[in-house]
Amino acid sequence: MSDLFKINVDGKEIEVPKSYTLMQACEEAGAEIPRFCYHERLSVAGNCRMCLVEWEGAPKPIASCAQTVGDMRPNRDGSAPNIRTKGPYVEKARNGVMEFLLINHPLDCPICDQGGECDLQDQAVAYGRSGSRYEENKRAVEDKNMGPLVKTIMTRCIQCTRCVRFVAEVGGVEEIGMISRGESAEITTYLEKNLTSELSGNVIDLCPVGALTSKPYAFNARPWELRKTSSVDVMDAMGASIRVDAKGDGVMRIMPEVNEDINEEWLSDKSRFVWDGLARQRLDKPYVRVDGRLKPASWGEAFEAVKAALSKPAEKIGVVAGDLIEVEQAKAALDLFRSLGIQNTDCRPAGAKYGTDGVREHYILNPTLAGVEEADALLLVGVNPRTEAAVWNARIRKTWLWADLKVALIGDAADLTYDYTHLGNSADALNKAETAEFLKGAKRPMIVLGEGALVRDDGDAVLAAAIKLANETGAIADDWAGFGVLHNAAGRVGALDTGFVPGEGGEATAGILGGGMETIVLLGADEVDLSKTAGATVIYVGSHGDAGASRADVILPSAAYTEMTATFVNTEGRVQVTSRAVQPKGEAREGWAIFRALSDVMGKTLPYDTVDALREGLRENEAFAGIGYAPGAAGAEALKAVPEGAGSLSSAPFKPVIGDFYLTNPIARASKTMAECSALATALDTPVAAE
Fold first, then answer.
1. Which residues form the 4Fe-4S Mo/W bis-MGD-type domain (predicted)?
2. What's the pLDDT at 59?
């Protein structure tokens, strides 16, 4: 029996799968169907009725989003059913629906932030009447408090329930619902509480009217005033596709772009709302510490101070790269410091030992972010994807919800928004029989390690044990590389690919910051322990005045990710390029340019004068040869090799690597919005004593 169904749409006969909705079939035939409640990534609600079409022979118009093609009957003569998506009958039906939708909708388009990109405006132009026959007073609905991110004007709500379905199905926290019936129906959060999902900002994009808008962005700009720049997010290691909207020299908002391989069309709240941190606490000129106080200086004076600090013995100089370092800066810095004989360089957190064996497959997410949809068993080791890669966590939930993915966790038992089997909290659980048993029955098992599993004393042993387990359970096969590492820092994989690890005889991060160095260079490294660096001269290269800058003796200001065209490599090993949306602040310069200029001062001039020439050199490394694709399972053979001499597994519990989701980097800590979210999350976590 065929899985295809013939249907006649506006006189054009097509064949579509029986699982298609009538709306999908009509769009396949080239018809345009208006809608408010329907969204291709959410379940079907069928409650706005805007998508009405005419089915010849049916007694009334059909809601095309809720009608499955396979359930339709052919005509009496056996021919394909006839559907009309235009004509007087359909137009009249849609006009009636639009009139109902506008009965209570306020006429406040001039002050509505949705103006200019509002589905209701657009469709009212196409299907609205010139006047209303409704003479009663419009009803009003009280606005709801949904926290510091989502602004609500609920009188505008048309009850499409997209937000309700999103937080329940994608976000995994059922915090929004509809109460009452008929004209009294309204959308609200339960008990008027704030949204706690890390993805709550996506309801702003989903809302087809101005009921849910961005609270930080409110009244800042109109969409036609903004310059729109496609770029890449750096708040985690996923590399989500984003659009940076700027006005003048300021970033006004950040929105997701569709990328099926990475973020689908979602974005985490930190990535979306961190933009106000781009203008606060900025380092916009060089500083040099004089008599215990940082004082503004010229670039020449700052470089002279750096030259003096770098004239110390090479073995007494250490360089630590931070979480947000771009590839060009890592490459230029490494070239300069190696030319000075400095081997103490590292881009990994203290305690990490991975990335030095030359096997790239041992530190990237080989099965890819989208690959979890092909897996049928997922083992998470020392990782909390809800805080380390919130959008990927939604993809895991989607696969668990719709494709029966089994999930197991070794590590801290957190709420991940889906059910999982907790196999233990320490690394020795990798050797338990039940762990192997969980994976062995699966056709495509997947093992994912997090930073929390690799920055321990037994990090080498955890990596070796996980690869050994992957080999034994079929997670690594000829057509499936089901083992990978989920990083949480955007700059980590790119820096590892450039070779930013200790050179021969060099110290790692813990050794560099352990108290033995005379000069320490921090490349945006703020998430490190600087308590033992009291006797050293600290040079800080970065964009924000955070922990590293407050400890620094010399500050060289660099551009933020929205202010440069720069290369990043995401956790899958996918090479991506950001785009400059605004100019760097004040005298700040791109990271690679700072080290190119410094190399002149040091008498070790680097062999490239432009960023294009630098990238030509980068492309000699095959990891940077292509842009935009993930290597995926191509490296299965290299991946099978188990690292030797790794030692034994410890029974010490895994610790979460992210304490506060909203404050993980200098840009986020400079953001007023993120500070509000953090305070709210902390307050919600604090138990309230019974009265």
1. 226-282
2. 92
Could you say which of 101, 124, 152 is where a domain stops?
Answer: 101
> What CATH number did the domain enclosing 11 receive?
3.10.20.740
Are the C-beta atoms of residues 590 and 566 closer than 8 Å to each other?
yes
For residue 295, what pLDDT is reported? 95
Are 321 and 370 in the same domain? Answer: no
Return phi, psi of residue 16, to 5°. Answer: -135, 160
List the structure tokens of 130. Answer: 């010139």
Looking at residue 586, the DSSP 8-state letter turns out to be: T
DSSP state of 145: -
Q: How large is the C-alpha radius of gyration of the chain?
A: 28
DSSP helix/strand/coil, 623: helix
Q: Establish if 609 belongs to a structural domain.
A: yes
**Can you give the pTM of this predicted structure?**
0.93
680, part of any domain: no
Cβ-Cβ contacts under 8 Å for 194 (sequence gap 6 or more): 145, 146, 147, 148, 680, 684
103 and 132 in contact (C-beta within 8 Å)?
yes
Q: How far apart are CA 449 and CA 475, in angstroms?
A: 13
* 225 within some domain: no
Q: Report pLDDT for 691.
A: 39
Checking if the pLDDT of 688 tops 50, the result is no
H-helix or E-strand spanning residue 542: strand 537-542
Measured CA to CA, the distance from residue 447 to residue 477 in angstroms comes to 13
pLDDT tens-digit map of 92-150: 999 999 999 999 999 899 999 999 999 999 999 999 888 888 888 888 999 988 989 99
Distance of CA 689 to the CA centre of its chain: 36
Taking alpha carbons only, the member of 30, 4, 6, 211 closest to residue 106 is 211
3-class secondary-structure state, position 539: strand
Q: Which domain holds residue 414?
A: 366-486
Q: Are residues 34 and 73 in the same domain?
A: yes
Q: How far apart are CA 241 and CA 127, in angstroms?
A: 34
Residues 6+ apart with CB under 8 A from 655: 412, 452
Structure confidence at residue 160 as a pLDDT band (50, 70, 90): very high
Determine contact, residues 494/330, Cβ cutoff 8 Å.
yes
**Helices vs strands, H then E, count in the chain:** 21, 28
pLDDT for 636 equals 64
Taking residues 595-614, report their average pLDDT.
94
Residue for token pair 């004393």: 457
Average pLDDT over residues 170-194: 85
Cα–Cα distance between 407 and 381 in angstroms, integer?
Answer: 11
| Domain count along the chain | 4
Residue entry with tokens 């980068």 = 618
| pLDDT given for residue 600 in this prediction | 94
